[in-house]
Design a protein that fits this description.
Nucleoside Triphosphate Pyrophosphohydrolase; 140 residues; globular; four-stranded antiparallel sheet
Length: 140
C-alpha cells in the first residue's frame, strides 16, 4: 500500500552584507506584503541550492555573487505551512542593487544588523534572528 507523503517547500534565501548592513526588500503583491525580507525564493526541482540562491539574487536584485556560503537552516512549521528555509551568505558581490521584479518588490534597502525594521517577513524572521546570533539551526 502506498501512502501519499505530505509535501513541503524549500526556500533558498541570501544574506547580502555590505559595510555591516544587510540588504532587505519590501515585499509587494505577495505573501507578507509590506514586510521586509531577504532575496530568495523556492528551490526548483533538480536545482542545486547554490544555483537557486545565485539565480534568485540576480533575478530579484540584479546583484551577482561569486559563490554562496551556507549559514543556517530553519525548519518552519508555523502559520499552517511547512517550509525548510536555508540561508546562504553572498561572497564577492558585484553590481548595483535594483528592483528587478517591481510587481513583487517595492524597494531594496540596507539596514544595520542591529537596527532592522520591526516588520520582517514571517518566513525570514527566525532565519534573520539566528543569523544575528551566529547560530545555524532552528526548529520552529
Amino acid at each position: 500500500m502506498s501512502a501519499e507523503r505530505p509535501m513541503y517547500c524549500v526556500g533558498v534565501n541570501v544574506f547580502v552584507m555590505r559595510d555591516g548592513k544587510l540588504l532587505l526588500g519590501q515585499r509587494k503583491h505577495c505573501s507578507g506584503e509590506g514586510s521586509w525580507g531577504l532575496p530568495g525564493g523556492h528551490l526548483e526541482h533538480g536545482e542545486s541550492m547554490e544555483s537557486a540562491g545565485l539565480r534568485e539574487l540576480m533575478e530579484e536584485t540584479g546583484l551577482q555573487a561569486d559563490s554562496l556560503t551556507f549559514v543556517n537552516i530553519v525548519n518552519d512549521r508555523s502559520r499552517g505551512q511547512h517550509y525548510i528555509q536555508t540561508g546562504f551568505l553572498a561572497n564577492n558581490i558585484s553590481g548595483e542593487v535594483g528592483v528587478m521584479e517591481p510587481d513583487r518588490c517595492e524597494c531594496w534597502e540596507w539596514f544595520d544588523v542591529d537596527l532592522l525594521p520591526k516588520n520582517l517577513f514571517h518566513g525570514h524572521e527566525a532565519q534573520i534572528e539566528i543569523f544575528r546570533q551566529d547560530k545555524i539551526f532552528r526548529d520552529n
